[in-house]
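Hmm, how's this folded?
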Amino acid sequence: MSRFDSSARTVLFAALLAALPAFAQNADVKREVVGNRTSENIPAIPADLIEQLNRYQNTRGAGLAGWTRDGCLLISTRFAETAQAHRVCQPLGMREQLTFYPEPVGGITPSPAKAWRDGFVFAKDKGGDEFSQLYWFDNATRSITLLTDGGRSQNGGTTLSRDGGLMAYSSTARNGTDRDVWLRNTRTGETKLLVDAGGNWSPMDFSPDGTQLLVMKYVSAAESYPGEVDVATGKLTLFPVDGGKASFGGFAFAPDGKSVYFISDEPLQGKPQEFKTLRYHNPDSGKFEVLTANIPWDVEGFTLSDDGRHLAYTTNEDGIDRLHLLSLPDHKEIRLPALPVGVMGGMAFSPDGGRLALSMNSATSPSDVYVIDLAAAMVTRWTQSEVGGLDAAKFIAPTLVRYPTFDKVDGKQRTIPAFYYKPTKPSKTGKYPVVINIHGGPEGQSLPSFSATAQYLANELGVAMLVPNVRGSTGYGKTYLSLDNAEKREDSVKDIGALLDWIAKQPELDASRVGVMGGSYGGYMVLAALTHYSDRIRAGVDVVGISHFGTFLKNTESYRRDLRRAEYGDERDPAMNAVFERISPLNNAAKIKVPLFVAQGRNDPRVPYTEAEQIVKAVRGNGVPVWYLLYADEGHGFAKKANNDWFGAATMLFWQQYLLGGAH
């Protein structure tokens, strides 16, 4: 449901006990350890609730990874506990599973059609620790080879040259903090460090002849720096950034190997730009063209066909993705067939350039892969994922609403967009209880994508869900993105207060029964909302959330620390540290007077589990019910189906008791 970033280390029972603080041993805490799951004060989950939830939890989706050279599609889908790589060779054909791991597989990168060998690169971590290693799956032998150091390094962002002879990727192997660009000769296995300029670097695209590599340094959602590396010498040349600082998206060579296509919000003719546009630049001729100047929304991404005849790109228009197709080199728009309305995932042209595959997701349908025949302007569905035996016609599509908040823009009240899932059955009490679901990031964006949680709440429990994109969300322009930075952090919390005001004015919604939930930064938002609005919120669910910005920045993995400082502020600055001390939920925990459910992965490298344990201890001191769930084999979210299912059932039980029940 959110565009933001979120995967098994088995911990011995004794070690897990030792890791838990003294408060967990308190006689008032009812603790249960089952395998990798430790739960505190969570009652037994009724069998009928598990049975009712089962169909919703058995929905699955399929995401596109790319084409194989023989015209099949590589996809990611889950048949057992975790998402694995599969191959599909015809529309609605059999999904042949290729990888079989207890941990989810991601970052699947197929070898180019003209590569010297056939297969794909993929990434896999252990227990959600995000120290992903890269592996090669060889299609001829079905063998799998480890490509990276296998240690405590993070590796990803795989980019392959046209002939498959070179593989560029990002890695923290050098010092554990900086994300450098490394180069591997796939024929000899020789690996060398290519870019070690400090910071967070990623490879973007090899030139057609493999001699140059486009790279990008990411600082924050509003700041990136593009450049080019000579593959032979390692010489890095940074490109000038108009305006000095800008956000960039995709970056790729045009078929001529000299011109480039890229996404940027750099100023145009000295005029600041709110949105990221698709641009073309030929450095030799000086020709520059803005290809999406007439679209007042962000371009999300693009891809080029191997034959150099087409470019496809997507725009994010108020949370809905739109697909566009251009002919090359004249950049003329090509008509496309009608597609389902929703959110688009990966895109890839077939090896011959005649077809375009993409994954589609909507509020009423999980992700599936579609293929467009460009010449015939026809679309064919290639996968049809299961929805647990449910009647998909009864799924609820949200409406987009905008509610007024506390400040003004050009003399008018600022409005905040939110997706509203409204139950179709009449409420037994005349008004629907509400769950506010807040995205993470904080630079994420809630989208009208499929959510089994939203469907279950609406159809089975009669609960409405509101999914706001508070200030700081991407997708609404550069200004909106910056409205919650640093000392303005709590302005986004005020947007939740404004949503509570809006709920109170809706005749069909019950303002006396409102819950809040969110993950990661959304977890912080839950805790912050509870410190400000406990008198207006019944209960909250915090998943892998930040409880104190100072301890979070101190304990998050070192490769993430500067990235987060760019967004939240630098705790080493006394003035900023004072803000953190004032606004952090841990320091205001005495104000949380309602039931709280905290869920966490023990291996989380982003928001360490200590963030969860300290807020659990503090809120328990208020004498309110606090449920706590810790998985020893998970990280920043729950990637294993059994774990996620149990958490989902516990969450619904929590809402039944504290949102729908009489308890407050």
User: Anything to note?
Assistant: Residues 1-25 have pLDDT under 50 and may be disordered. The radius of gyration is 25 Å. The chain has eleven helices and 37 strands.
